[in-house]
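tokens incoming
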């Protein structure tokens, strides 16, 4: 299962490297992307007993390729659930202001070591808290997709969890 996941994601990354991915962008409500992504990780969240809580202040739309954007958010959610402690939760929050719209995904894990933080979007990077199944592809693929869609992803971490923030700057 994890080998299948790795091969599929490697092939996807190769398509980006070869510049053969064409995005079919259209205006999509962010709640549709979040709902689909949460649905994609529901089995994993049930298995680990990690609840995914979604909080939104205002819906907004972004111009993106729905399928690829769901892939990116799903990978980040999957990572957040895998690194959360059992019987905890992952918080997904999204909102918009005058400068940018954003999505925050916060896990309930033990955090990422500061020396690992600059490298977590690199392919095949294995940090200190890496799970045994992880091959270090999911976050690299997510960053590649989000970069291509014009979004910026950042990460902050402490011993109470990690927060991924995706920003969509307004022109």
């Amino acid at each position: 299962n994890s080998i299948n996941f790795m091969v599929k994601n490697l092939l996807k990354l190769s398509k980006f490297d070869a510049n053969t991915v064409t995005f079919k962008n259209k205006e999509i409500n962010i709640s549709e992307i979040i709902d689909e992504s949460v649905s994609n990780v529901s089995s994993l969240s049930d298995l680990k007993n990690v609840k995914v809580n979604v909080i939104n202040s205002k819906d907004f739309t972004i111009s993106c390729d729905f399928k690829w954007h769901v892939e990116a958010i799903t990978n980040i959610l999957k990572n957040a659930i895998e690194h959360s402690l059992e019987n905890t939760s992952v918080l997904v929050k999204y909102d918009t202001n005058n400068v940018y719209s954003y999505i925050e995904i916060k896990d309930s894990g033990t955090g990422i070591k500061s020396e690992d933080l600059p490298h977590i979007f690199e392919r095949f990077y294995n940090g200190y808290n890496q799970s045994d199944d992880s091959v270090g592809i999911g976050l690299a693929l997510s960053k590649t997709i989000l970069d291509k869609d014009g979004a910026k992803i950042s990460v902050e971490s402490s011993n109470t969890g990690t927060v991924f923030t995706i920003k969509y700057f307004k022109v």
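note: The chain has five helices and seven strands.
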